[in-house]
Amino acid sequence: MDDLETRELRYFVAVAEELHFGRAAGRLGIAQPPLSRAIRRLEQRLGVQLLDRDRRGAALTEAGRVLLREARVALDAVAAAARRTRRAGDPKRPLVLATKTGASHELLRRLLDTLASEPGAAPIEVLLCEVGEQARLLRDGQADVALMHRPFDDLAGFDTEDLRVEGQVAILPAGHPLASCHQLTLADVSNVPHLPIARWPRLDGSYPDGPGPEVHTQSQLAQLVALGKTLLVIPASSRAWQWPEHVAVPVVDAPKVTTVIAWPQSSRSQEVASLVRSAAGLRGGWGVVQVDHRAYGRR
């Protein structure tokens, strides 16, 4: 029998993450012997060894690594189903729209204004998050829709509508020599002495190699730029958080960025469909955003 219980998966994930049965048992709030027996029964049912055990703890086998990855996905899906079900049962609940802090600010403002003027439109709650978090918020049911950016964000498993296309700008310390340029190229910003490009996490959470600092939040990044410790290249509309100590200069050969509105492919919500239609209705007013140094230079 291949049916797996969520309890078994939770037990296995705890052991796989702790790599120690005693610590996993403490985390789960159960005794160690029944936890060990449950993992043994799971291995017997699946017909594979999930863990190599010794006196120091445990190590995942290849089969164990596969189950850990799949178990996390399955448990997230179960939790998301519960959240969506509870929220669907509340007729007064707002739709939750996730967006990266500081990103697509003008588009978001126009969308909220449009929805506020539409009779019967569902109320909107804006959930601000850090870079790359929108996909997780959609998948685990904490958000109904999200504003995301191609090619940077993980859009797997979502339906999307393109809303706008724009260029990118380099955010520099105001006193840096490059801040006086009318435009830059990727080559110009790739090897600036003493001012490396900030490194954002990849979709898998790892960081690319390079001399620039690893950044986690917009506020951390803003201060590092103001202190002359880093620069970054971002979509032009994402500079809403720009400080007076920053200057934005167009990067003329940077890839174009597409802002999309995304929602789970499984969604059947009429309220979500209506929100997406309203967002798509704004599309004609944007087109390809031309990055102009006069508009995106000093503030």
Describe the overall structure.
The structure is a single chain. This protein is α/β, with parallel strands linked by helices and 299 residues long. It folds into two domains: 6-87, Orthogonal Bundle (Arc Repressor Mutant, subunit A); 94-299, D-Maltodextrin-Binding Protein, domain 2, CATH 3.40.190.290. Helices cover 37% and strands 20% of the residues. The chain has ten helices and eleven strands. It has helices at residues 6-18, 21-28, 32-46, 62-88, 105-116, 134-139, 186-190, 218-226, 270-281, 293-296, and strands at 51-54, 57-60, 95-100, 124-129, 145-150, 158-166, 168-173, 232-235, 246-251, 257-264, 288-289. Helix 1 (6-18) packs across helix 2 and helix 1 (6-18) crosses helix 4. The protein starts with 5 loop residues before the first helix and ends with a helix. The model is unreliable at 287-299 (pLDDT under 50). Belongs to the LysR transcriptional regulatory family. Pfam families: HTH_1 (PF00126), LysR_substrate (PF03466). One of its GO terms (molecular function) is DNA binding.
